[in-house]
Amino acid sequence: MSAAKAGKWRWVKWLFILPVLLFLVVQLYFFLQIWWWVDHNPSMTSFMREQQSALREKNPAANIQQVWVPYNRISTNLKRAIIASEDANFSEHEGVDWDALQKAYEKNNKKHKVVSGGSTITQQLAKNLFLSGSRSYVRKGQELIITYMLETLMDKERIFEIYLNVVEFGTGTFGAEAAARHYYGVSAANLGAAQAAKLAVMLPNPRFFDKHRDSGYLARRTGVILRRMGSAELP
Where does the UniProt annotation place the signal sequence (predicted)? Predict the structure, then answer.
């Protein structure tokens, strides 16, 4: 093989090798970050940074509202309501509820648009911590990898604790404590059953419901979650 051909072949090999190496470096970063969060609390997530940046376009001094509280200082009502509303099988699955994903896929096909995600609490946390709200197969694939990292390194209670403290509840409002104070003027520990159920129902579209708190759908769905909360299994 001539020197020219050998040089060209090396470049072709690197065109394949470099993307693989970059992918592995990114995955290692995610893994190490999650490992650190096993016993350290995240300060900012990808979703928080994204929204704070958007808020500061209108007001340079704007900040998101978020206060970390330990798992045992968050109302059991809210924990049960979120599991009943978002992920009934949270304590049983290994990060992905494949049955729920299949049902969501069938529902979306029937409606010819995305109306249901089928994401578990762990998948939502993976997205909130590292990714964006955009929809693509590449992003979904990365979400699944991070989901299994979370489930491998953390127990269910820790996953749920982080989720409860970083999930978005409205424009600039993140986590159970900030949400409880924003909507009801109480701490996360003192949320009543109806209050918790309403917050849980807001999660799929929190910014919309922050502005439409008297929505008929919100009231009806809150009633449904209230009835389901008793059977919700906590980690």
Answer: none
